[in-house]
Design brief:
The structure holds three protein chains of three kinds.
Chain A lengths: L1 H31 L6 H17 L5 H24 L7 H23 L4 E2 L9 E3 L4 E3 L1 H23 L1 H11 L1 H6 L4 H26 L2 E2 L5 H14 L4 H21 L5 H15 L14
Antiparallel strand pairs in A: 1-4, 2-3
Helix pairs in contact in A: 1-5, 1-8, 1-9, 1-10, 2-3, 2-4, 2-8, 2-9, 3-8, 5-6, 5-8, 6-8, 9-10, 10-11
Chain B lengths: L1 H31 L5 H26 L7 H18 L5 H27 L4 H20 L1 E6 L2 E6 L11 E5 L13 H19 L2 H11 L1 H6 L4 H24 L12 H14 L4 H13 L4 H4 L5 H16 L1 H11 L4 H6 L1
Antiparallel strand pairs in B: 1-2, 1-3
Chain C lengths: L1 H30 L22 E8 L6 H20 L4 E8 L4 H14 L3 E5 L2 H14 L3 E3 L5 H4 L18 E3 L4 H14 L6 E6 L3 H17 L3 E7 L8 H9 L4 E4 L3 H13 L5 E4 L21 E4 L8 H14 L5 H18 L9 H12 L4 E3 L2 E6 L5 E2 L3 E6 L2 E4 L2
Parallel strand pairs in C: 1-2, 1-3, 4-5, 6-7, 6-8, 8-9, 9-10
Antiparallel strand pairs in C: 10-14, 11-12, 12-13, 14-15
The chains are: A mainly alpha, B mainly alpha, C alpha/beta.
């Protein structure tokens, strides 16, 4: 039972990291209708910025995170302006390939800037792990913070897209770009704002990801990127609560599959579950069922 | 009207055949004159394999209109089935053994294509894409845990752990995550050329047939096509399985031109690479796929790129982005004029 | 339609350009050997060149991508050796490294590029899977191959698979290793653990999709069974799942393992140590040469590695002059502490240099003749380098040098005896 609880906690911890990344994915997908494969690499950049702010310039962690968010937001805006905006009217596949190009660019740029040597991300969450059952079960502060931040971001995004003017504009763009434009919404700016928010989220995700799993290299972002993309689809891509649900479920399945079935096959099992879910619910767990119009 | 359309298509098709034949003849002549560097000679077979991969994916993406992010999975099936077959088949003639291995690779990949296609093709758009990605990952994991050896008694296989014991004189062929090692390289440029031509013939004939028109009708408007009585599952599956089988043959060609293959080679990045060929060359345009696959395979290995050293892959990424931006510029200009002020759109193209 | 035509035009143009570039550059290569390598010569021709033979040595390794850390380390070590040798006068070394991104296919491309350049001696691939591919190619070309770190038996060939007893690959007579061959490390570790009674209950975590890790594990488990070691938990991870080790560590913890054997590289090892500590699990650790480098990981809390045992041929903290000078030069040039990859590559260049020093080789000596000379020399000579004293090579391609048992104390290696 204790072992089961232990795996449960690990699964939620891993899952909430996926969820934060997936939230960024789902935001961008929901509005811009593009799979931003460079998202995972923006995460990596955010983690590097925070790492250097803390370890090289001895800035406090909070400043490091803010700096990472700032840099990633700027990076997101620049990428969007240079690489995606010119393709606004192109096929979604063209944008997908450009995003992959951007992903390669970021990875190789990071390697040139920061070398391929592993950096161990500092653990800056103070305090001892919370102990349950007389120390048999430990929950690290980083895990607790990750879960909390994940829920807060999810709620904030839900509020933002539901209540604010910009958020409503985003939803309108997501529904129908042409109609949104007719209603006086600046579609281009709205999409740019979405990218800025998505990239800021990526920075937070990067910092949290690396404080739980501290190996930082130029390729750190790619596998979590794919997993988070899977999580976003799992929950229903475009749905904010879906990203959270998908991320946590993915983390749990991954941990339980490797604990109780096989560490070698855990990835295969994760993807098999995804396939089954999509066959039963073709638009993900919380995705909108789109009715086809003739 | 119909006639002129067909003749134009035929013209493009013949030009494509011609292009491939000319390229083959030129390379053969240059090769026999000793004008090719080791680098180019070493890449001839992989280029053919990538060209066939791009053609086969173009059938799924360009003709059928479904995005697949797991095409490397079929290549993997073909590669490993072919490598095992080539090692196990008691055929002494290398070209015949290669042909038989390719056939086995294609059939197995086609079968996997049926298994994947039946559930996948019920989905739409990006959900279909993610399921193909998932299947690609599953195929990779399965191959990574598969052990196949051969001795006098025949083939032995084991999953997850290597429990194979040999009577005597046995030898491991597929060694789980370590893949197949010490492959007897029997793939030749000629074989690659023949496979490319076969694949082109199959694709062009399929596209120009009744089935091909049904498939394209599904791509253009599924509901309309369905309403006139086109069997969605049948035609989608037909295109998908053909595409998978071709990828399998390409996988065998590739594997038997390498010394070593591992399952991790055929991962998500490989699927993406093939997709890049297709999109860059133009969806539905077979000649475009051929050019793009050749160009992007050769590009990072050219002496000019090698001279860039540490900046090589950075430049490769920038070239990729720029080509995507430039190739989509015409449409951009036209629409840019309406949406954003002129000049700004043009500036963005750079 | 139009835009696609434009695209085609551009692509065709670009392709012609690239092909032309290929041809022209190749021509210049053929007419003036050795004049077109720019950066590669940064390592060469700096010292006094007294007109002695310039030997072209090529190497292949992952300089980009996930394994770039190993390739760049080897490249750095080899470059320092080449600089030192060139400063001595005598034989000059023109060193060139090409990138393979840890991929067998690209590794062969890189090898062919080096061949077109006129390489006479090959420093092999840095990593094992690509190493097996380039070893097969170089064997067909009869090009001497000395790898710093591709330790798998698939590279040298001719070694029986520990699980099945079958020899899956024929011995490649031109291929030699500077590093320990994997099975030796595995069985040596088991022997060490058994002799010193280091653990009652042993857990193993290895990287299942890595040739190096799996190779060591297979021979370790075979030897451990023979010695009667009590292995209570065996778990794996892969390239795609090397971020989270909670399951593997829980398994070891629940089995009460007091020693974890880690036949893996220091990147994941650093993470394993950190995560085990976070879950309050503090067993002893035993690593192999891949563990070396863990102390120089940026930001790693070295107190976590306190007491970690490893078998390694190289110790960057060693007091001997050669190591100190090498470490100082490496740090000055690259800003990092060199790991065993750098040291092995450094030794490789020196071993080749020593073997060639007394031979009458020139820039015109063909790679094939060079190969015969070197095979002959390597199987008969003794070499002292950073990674070992009195190293010898067998005709099977493996090196004999004693792995030093080390443990980490106060952030530094201390020899075990």
């Amino acid at each position: 039972m204790l072992i089961f609880l232990n795996h449960l906690i690990n699964g939620i911890s891993l899952g909430s990291v996926y969820a934060i990344i997936a939230l960024g994915y789902t935001m961008v997908y929901g509005i811009a209708k593009m799979l931003n494969f460079a998202h995972g690499d923006v995460i990596m950049v955010g983690a590097y910025i925070c790492f250097f702010a803390i370890s090289s310039f001895n800035l406090p962690p909070a400043v490091g995170i803010l700096l990472a968010m700032l840099v990633c937001t700027l990076l997101g805006i620049v990428i969007e302006r240079l690489a995606y905006k010119p393709l606004r009217q192109a096929t979604s596949l063209a944008v997908l390939i450009t995003a992959i190009g951007v992903s390669y660019l970021l990875q190789n740029g990071a390697q040139l800037l920061w070398t391929s040597n592993i950096k161990m991300f500092p653990s800056f969450f103070p305090g001892q792990p919370v102990e349950l059952f007389g120390g048999e079960l430990k929950i690290t502060v980083a895990s607790i913070v990750t879960v909390a931040v994940c829920v807060v971001i999810m709620l904030a995004l839900t509020w933002f897209t539901g209540q604010t003017k910009v958020g409503k504009a985003m939803r309108a763009c997501s529904e129908d770009k042409g109609a949104a434009q007719l209603m006086g919404i600046d579609v281009n700016t709205t999409i740019s704002v979405t990218f800025a928010i998505g990239s800021a989220l990526a920075a937070v995700a990067g910092v949290l990801f690396c404080s739980v799993y501290p190996n930082l290299t130029p390729t750190t972002g790619s596998m979590p990127g794919i997993k988070a993309f899977t999580a976003a689809v799992f929950g229903g891509i475009g749905s904010i609560p879906g990203a959270l649900l998908g991320g946590v479920l993915l983390g749990l399945i991954e941990i339980f599959a490797s604990a109780y079935i096989s560490t070698q096959l855990s990835n295969a099992i994760v993807f098999a579950v995804l396939i089954i879910v999509l066959l039963v619910r073709p638009t993900g767990l919380l995705g909108k069922q789109i009715r086809e119009k003739v | 009207m119909k006639k002129s359309y067909l003749s134009k298509t035929n013209w493009v098709n013949f030009a494509t055949y011609g292009m491939v034949i000319i390229a083959f003849v030129v390379m053969q002549l240059m090769g026999s004159a000793g004008m090719l560097s080791s680098t180019i000679r070493g890449q001839l077979v992989p280029i053919c394999a990538y060209v066939v991969m791009a053609l086969s994916l173009n059938l799924t993406v360009g003709i059928l209109g479904e995005l697949s992010l797991g095409h490397a999975g079929f290549m993997s099936v073909g590669a490993f089935a072919g490598a095992v077959a080539a090692a196990a088949l008691p055929i002494s003639s290398a070209p015949l053994r290669l042909g038989a291995a390719m056939l086995i690779g294609a059939v197995l990949a086609g079968l996997v294509g049926v298994v994947v296609g039946v559930p996948v093709l019920r989905l739409n758009g990006d959900y279909l894409a993610i399921v193909t990605l998932a299947f690609g990952q599953i195929i990779k994991s399965v191959v990574e845990n598969l052990y196949i050896g051969m001795d006098a008694k025949g083939l032995h296989a084991s999953f997850l752990e290597n429990r194979i014991t040999f009577t005597d004189g046995g030898r491991m062929i597929l060694n789980g995550p370590m893949g197949v090692n010490g492959i007897n390289k029997i793939s030749t440029f000629t074989a690659g050329f023949v496979l490319t031509m076969i694949v082109l013939v199959v694709i062009f004939n399929l596209v120009n047939s009744r089935a091909g028109r049904a498939i394209m009708a599904l791509r253009d408007n599924r509901i309309a096509a369905e309403s006139v009585g086109i069997n969605v599952t049948k035609y989608k599956l037909m295109a998908f399985v053909t595409s998978a089988a071709m990828a399998g043959a390409a996988g065998t060609l590739f594997a038997l031109g390498q010394n070593t293959i591992t399952a991790s080679k055929f991962d998500f990045n490989m699927s993406i690479l093939i997709l890049v060929f297709v999109v860059l060359g133009g969806q539905g345009k077979m000649w475009g796929s051929i050019l793009a696959a050749t160009f992007l395979t050769v590009l990072p290995e050219t002496p000019a790129m090698r001279e860039l050293r540490d900046y090589r892959m950075l430049v490769y990424a920038i070239v990729m982005i720029l080509v995507m931006l430039v190739t989509n510029s015409d449409k951009l200009k036209g629409l840019a004029g309406r949406i954003i002020p002129k000049g700004k759109g043009a500036a963005d193209n750079g | 339609m139009k835009k696609k035509n434009l695209a085609a035009l551009l692509m065709a143009g670009a392709m012609c350009f690239s092909l032309l570039a290929g041809c022209s550059s190749k021509d210049s290569n053929a007419s003036t050997p050795g004049t077109d390598s720019k950066e590669s010569q940064s390592a060469g021709n700096e010292g006094g060149n007294s007109g002695a033979a310039t030997i072209k040595i090529g190497g292949v390794g992952p300089l980009t991508g996930g394994a770039a850390i190993y390739g760049n380390a080897a490249k750095g070590g080899a470059e320092i050796a080449a600089e030192e040798i060139n400063a001595l006068g005598g034989i000059q070394i023109d060193l060139r490294y090409e990138d393979d991104a840890h991929d067998p296919e690209k590794s062969v491309n890189a090898y062919n590029t080096l061949k077109d350049w006129g390489m006479q001696v090959f420093l092999g691939s840095v990593t094992s899977t690509p190493g097996a591919a380039t070893a097969a190619e170089s064997n067909a070309d009869h090009m001497f191959y000395l790898t710093p770190s591709a330790s798998s038996t698939d590279v040298i060939g001719g070694v029986a698979n520990p699980l099945t007893g079958s020899v899956d690959i024929e011995r490649r007579d031109n291929v030699f290793q500077m590093c320990f061959v994997d099975p030796n490390q595995g069985s040596a570790s088991a022997q060490y653990i058994s002799d010193k009674k280091l653990g009652e209950k042993i857990a193993v975590i290895y990287k299942n999709d890595d040739v190096y890790s799996t190779g060591i594990y297979n021979s370790f488990s075979a030897k451990a069974a023979e010695l009667g070691l009590n292995i209570v938990s065996t778990t794996t991870f892969t390239e795609d799942s090397q971020t989270d080790f909670s399951v593997q560590l829980s398994d070891a913890k629940n089995a009460d393992a007091d020693l974890i054997y880690l036949p893996t590289y220091y990147g994941p090892n650093a993470l394993i140590l950190t995560q085990a500590n976070a879950m309050g699990y503090n067993p002893k650790y035993f690593g192999v040469d891949g563990m070396d480098g863990i102390l120089s990981v940026d930001g790693f809390d070295t107190s976590l590695a306190e007491g970690v045992m490893l078998l390694t041929p190289f110790n960057a903290d060693s007091e001997d002059e050669a190591t100190k000078s090498f470490v100082a030069k490496y740090q000055e040039k690259y800003g990092d502490v060199p790991n065993q990859f750098a040291a092995d590559a450094y030794d490789c260049v020196y071993a080749i240099y020593n073997a060639l020093k007394d031979e009458n080789v020139t820039a015109e000596t063909s790679a094939s003749d060079m190969c015969d000379i070197l095979i002959n020399k390597f199987t008969s000579m003794t070499f002292n380098g950073l990674t070992g004293e009195n190293m010898t090579w067998s005709a099977e391609g493996t090196v004999t040098k004693s792995p030093k048992g080390m443990f980490i104390q106060d952030g530094a290696y201390v020899g075990m005896d």
